[in-house]
Amino acid sequence: MRHESNFLTVNDKVGILNRQSSNFEPQRVLNFAIQRAATNRTALVSSFGAESVVLLHMVSQIDASLPVLFIDTQMLFAETLVYQSEVARQLGLSDVRSISAETLDISVRDPDGTLNMRDKDACCALRKSNPLQQALKGFDAWITGRKRFQSGSRAALEFFEADGNRQIKINPLAHWRPEDLQNYIETHDLPKHPKLAQSFASIGCAPCTSPVKEGEDARAGRWRDSDKTECGIHFVNGEAQRQPQKGEFSS
Ligand code: SF4
């Protein structure tokens, strides 16, 4: 299959993978992607946010040495950094790579850390999209935690999607609902992000994340009072795209 796949385009591969996995559960999608699919070099991209532990646990059950790319924007809650270390240790993940913007880029473009107040898209590009784009250069495919229920732009999300003409994005949780995630966390007694206890339902950078009120959408606390709904982490032909912002790595 790997030999034949060399002659297929990414869109061809995605079509085949989606047809073969259409009735799979997330664990089977992951297993298929990591062990058997036409994706030789695969990484999990994780924010170690509110629900990230689900995919991290699933991956640890299949291959705890799979590279996990953690984007440290240097704007995260201190609790996220502690949680990241603790989850990686507890699950035995042996190749968690912390990805950050170059110190020089930060010092030139956001020396006082206020770019998020002036231009959120530029800040996300500097601190998230560009470092991730660099880190993903060595991979054929990356696993994300995106789900259909999260927003209208994700409503038709498939397990596999083309990311430009070279890479494949894998969305094993595409069809899961919030209750599926909670059931999984409870069933496996997985550690919860400490900010969840403070009414944070979706957890990103500290300046751009606020608690949600009862009845609000989980992502209402992300970039509150702004039109922004996504990090804009979406690549076309290896280049980060800001618009349309249809993709990100959130989990
Ligand atoms: S979420 Fe906010 S602080 Fe984090 S990179 Fe984007 S704009 Fe900057």
Total helices: the number is 9
Q: What fraction of the residues are assigned to beta strands by DSSP? A: 5-15%
Q: What is the number of strand segments?
A: 8
Q: What is the helix fraction of residues, given as a range?
A: 25-40%
Give the class-level CATH name.
Alpha Beta
Number of domains: 1
Strand neighbour order, sheet with most strands: 3-2-1-4-6-5
Structure class: alpha/beta
- Cα(first) to Cα(last) distance is 30 Å
How would you characterize the overall build of this protein?
By secondary structure, this protein is α/β, with parallel strands linked by helices. It has a single domain (2-194), classed as Rossmann fold. 35% of the residues lie in helices and 11% in strands. The chain has helices at residues 2-5, 10-20, 26-36, 52-62, 78-91, 103-109, 115-118, 120-135, 178-187, and strands at residues 42-46, 68-71, 96-99, 141-143, 160-163, 167-170, 235-236, 239-240. The strands form two sheets. It has a six-stranded mixed sheet with strand order 3-2-1-4-6-5. Strands 7-8 form a two-stranded antiparallel ribbon. Strand 5 and strand 6 form a beta hairpin. The model is unreliable at 242-248 (pLDDT under 50). The site of iron/sulfur cluster has 12 residues, from helix 8.
Keywords:
alpha/beta, single chain, Rossmann fold, globular, 251 residues, binds iron/sulfur cluster, 6-stranded mixed sheet, 9 helices
Blueprint of the fold:
Blueprint: H1 2-5, H2 10-20, H3 26-36, E1 42-46, H4 52-62, E2 68-71, H5 78-91, E3 96-99, H6 103-109, H7 115-118, H8 120-135, E4 141-143, E5 160-163, E6 167-170, H9 178-187, E7 235-236, E8 239-240
Parallel strand pairs: 1-2, 1-4, 2-3, 4-6
Antiparallel strand pairs: 5-6, 7-8
The structure holds iron/sulfur cluster.
